[in-house]
């Protein structure tokens, strides 16, 4: 296989990992006001992702670094043309991370509510804008002969891209609610299950609309089958949640998000940044990739590093696999973003 093609799929894998893992982080953050009745509830919700949220975000760093090294032309065009949306995502992620660390530093409820609001918005804004960004990449943007973006920020806010943003927002929201059913008990678990059911029904409608539009307008045969698989697993996830099979529901939702992201990359292939104004200006795997030597060195590095990353991530989730309960929170200090062992177990 051509190394450029190989790295296209490796980067797709990194983004699948990021959206699946940080996706439920976003969903938990957005679910905070819907499933919490008091500060102890909010501490339970936050502690479900306390040990893993920063680890999940490293997938974005790896994806961005790999994109820069393997496809420098794609990286340059994407980050210069989408500068403002990506900057807003970065600011939202910073504010969310700060909130996890600072909300428990003072006892006043008003202090905690401010940071809780930052968690909610710091989760919702990236969840929306990531969908907008990837939808624009798939449908194409105006590029000049030097592969520079020639549109405006408002050109990115087109109907297809906004529908993509709402789709990722709802997918992550439902994903987070399902994660809470898996990691909590009692009233929070019941409220999370009910929230996941309501959100899941709306997600089915919106996601089906977006994936259908994608396949009909930009899709290929592989994209069609991937989109069909995403639709089936999404419906199955909502049904499993209704039957109180939270582990199965969460796994199916993770698979749904993975298939949806792969649908976008399949619709994109073999281009990496289509030009909507002139196909001759499009960036493809061939004209955007690094030299064969660079890709060869990266391939050997990934061969040794990737299994270690996956093993460490799996070990972390195994260590913090148990449910977070109100009893554990009431019995120990507020651990904020890094729960004490009792709060995590």
How would a crystallographer describe the biggest sheet? 2 strands, antiparallel
In angstroms, what is the radius of gyration? 20 Å
Class by SSE composition: mainly alpha
What spatial form do the alpha-carbon principal axes imply? globular
Amount of helix: over 70%
Query: What distance lies between the first and last C-alpha atoms, to the nearest angstrom?
Result: 45 Å
Helical segment count: 14
Strands ordered across the widest β-sheet: 1-2
Q: Number of DSSP strands?
A: 2
- List low-pLDDT spans: 333-345
Mean pLDDT: 90
Which strand-content bin applies to the residues?
Answer: under 5%
* Count of separate structural domains: 1
Task: Describe this structure as you would to a colleague.
The protein has one domain. Helix 1 crosses helix 7, helix 8 (186-218) runs antiparallel to helix 9 and helix 9 packs antiparallel against helix 10. A two-stranded antiparallel sheet has the order 1-2. With 345 residues, the chain is mainly alpha-helical. The protein has helices at residues 3-35, 39-49, 53-70, 72-81, 83-102, 109-139, 159-183, 186-218, 221-242, 246-268, 285-288, 292-319, 326-330, 341-344, and strands at residues 271-273, 283-284. The protein starts with a helix and ends with a helix. The protein has 14 helices and 2 strands; from the N terminus they run H-H-H-H-H-H-H-H-H-H-E-E-H-H-H-H. The model is unreliable at 333-345 (pLDDT under 50).
